Automatic annotation (TrEMBL):
One matching Pfam family: GFO_IDH_MocA
Domain Gfo/Idh/MocA-like oxidoreductase N-terminal: 10-135
Matches recorded under SUPFAM superfamilies: Glyceraldehyde-3-phosphate dehydrogenase-like, C-terminal domain (SSF55347), NAD(P)-binding Rossmann-fold domains (SSF51735)
Catalytic activity: D-xylose + NADP(+) = D-xylono-1,5-lactone + NADPH + H(+)
Name of the protein this chain belongs to: D-xylose 1-dehydrogenase (NADP(+), D-xylono-1,5-lactone-forming)
InterPro entries to which the protein is assigned, alphabetical: Gfo/Idh/MocA-like_OxRdtase_N (IPR000683), Gfo/Idh/MocA_domain (IPR050984), GFO_IDH_MocA-like_dom (IPR055170), NAD(P)-bd_dom_sf (IPR036291)
Organismal lineage: Eukaryota, Fungi, Dikarya, Ascomycota, Pezizomycotina
Domain of life: Eukaryota
Length: 380
């Protein structure tokens, strides 16, 4: 290990699908992605079901010498844990994150950070007061290609970006695959396309039309939306959002669990359209590994941009999924005493949540049973 390498010690809260994927990435040697300054260690995992399940989770990952807890409450008391990764369904994020923050732990929370913006604001307030690191795990933003695209936009290469289209949708036999109990459609687990998938469409629009501006110039968009509900549970199965940003730029964000986003390069799922040309980001947009730069042209004037058509591809190194880049960001922030990441700032997390709040208001989608409550502790 290089001298001066910082090791971040992780506690994993929940043992489901994404927890497993994230932990596999934590275990990949960071030098395979040229990260020589940070390392990760899983020191504990907790399951709300049983200690045995937590132990099985660690054993399946090949993690030895880590502690297995049968409650989340015990995990947050572990002095050896620097940061907790919360990987429960988003219905439970607010309660779980309060538990961690109140216990003085740094936190990385799966997306969406909470069910509504007010809950997110409270988490931010507590993190600020206690001087703890807190970040919504929007891993897409930490991909080298996402950074590259933001830099291209900020440099003015595309001219003025007028419009961003973004779609994240998956074809499913919804009744057969999800029924009424699956977290994707179960209102008790804050199910629905918007909070689970639509957040990625909004991520692309925000990281281009909002994040590339200096912080003082970032302003909330006006919002018009439409939502179709899944009859069996009442969650949203298809949602389309029009965003109008001050200065005239427009965003079109769509999401569905009935039909798929395009995987053809002819119809890219993200199109960033500037006066000098476009960037097409190819699927999967939550894990960007390729994009195309297309100079603007018209019949009278020919090619308008001074640059050429270009295709860019960059596979995820080390055989990983690509979640390790956000983990590296957490390590650097904790090491340097930074409580928030510039890549996913608190204010922007709350702004995206506010958009989703308004879209749910327009669509009449409310989560009951205390899921939207600000109270803590609450048994949701
Ligand atoms: N970043 C990404 O690419 C990505 C991908 C998928 C999902 N996600 C996000 O990650 C979160 C978890 O998704 P997932 O697919 O990992 O879900 P999952 O496979 O269902 O796992 C969720 C885990 O949460 C724990 N849990 C605690 N209370 C629960 C309850 N009442 N009902 C169900 N599970 C409960 C369980 O672990 P224990 O029994 O061990 O406590 C369960 O295994 C969601 O917020 C989702 O939006 C992110």
């Amino acid at each position: 290990m290089a001298a001066g390498t910082f090791t971040l010690k992780w506690g994993i809260l929940a043992t489901g699908g994404i927890a497993k994927t994230f932990c596999k990435d934590l275990l990949i040697d960071p030098t395979t992605r040229n990260a020589n300054d940070v390392r990760h260690k899983i020191v504990a995992a907790a399951s709300s079901s049983s200690q045995a399940r937590a132990q099985q989770f660690l054993t399946a990952l090949g993690v030895n010498n880590a502690k297995a807890y049968g409650t989340y409450e015990n995990l947050v008391k572990d002095d050896d844990v620097d940061i907790i990764y919360i990987a429960t369904p988003h219905s439970h994020h607010y309660q779980n994150a309060r538990l961690c923050l109140e216990a003085g732990k740094n936190v990385l929370i799966e997306k969406p950070i909470t069910v509504n913006a007010q809950q997110a604001e409270i988490l931010v307030q507590i993190a600020k007061e206690k001087g703890l690191f807190l970040m919504e795990a929007v891993w897409t933003r930490f991909f080298p290609l996402a950074k590259q695209i933001r830099e291209l936009v900020a440099s003015g290469k595309l001219g003025k970006v007028e419009r961003v289209w973004a779609d994240l949708s998956f074809w499913n036999d919804v009744e057969e695959e999800f029924g009424t109990g699956h977290r994707m459609v179960n209102l008790d687990l804050a199910g629905g396309a918007l909070l689970d998938l639509g957040i990625y469409s909004l991520t692309w629009i925000f990281q281009i039309l909002y994040h590339t501006l200096p912080p003082s110039q970032r302003s909330a968009p006006a919002i018009a939306s439409t939502m179709s509900k899944y009859e069996a549970t009442g969650c949203d199965e298809q949602t389309s959002i029009l965003l109008s940003f001050p200065g005239g730029a427009q965003g079109v964000a769509t999401t569905s669990i009935r039909v798929s986003h395009s995987s053809s390069s002819d119809v890219p799922p993200v199109r960033i359209q500037g006066t000098h040309g476009d960037i097409h980001v190819h699927a999967p947009i939550y894990r960007p590994t390729s994009y195309t730069l297309i100079p603007a042209q018209n019949e009278k004037r020919g090619k308008i941009a001074s640059w050429e058509f270009k295709e860019v591809k960059e596979e995820v190194p080390g055989g990983g999924h690509g979640m390790f880049w956000e983990a590296d960001e957490c390590a650097r922030c904790v090491r340097d005493g930074r409580v928030e990441s510039e890549g996913m700032p608190w204010e922007e997390t709350v702004s995206v949540m506010k958009v989703m709040d308004e879209v749910r208001r327009q669509g009449g989608l409310v989560y009951l049973g205390g899921l939207e409550s600000l109270e803590y502790p609450l048994d949701v």
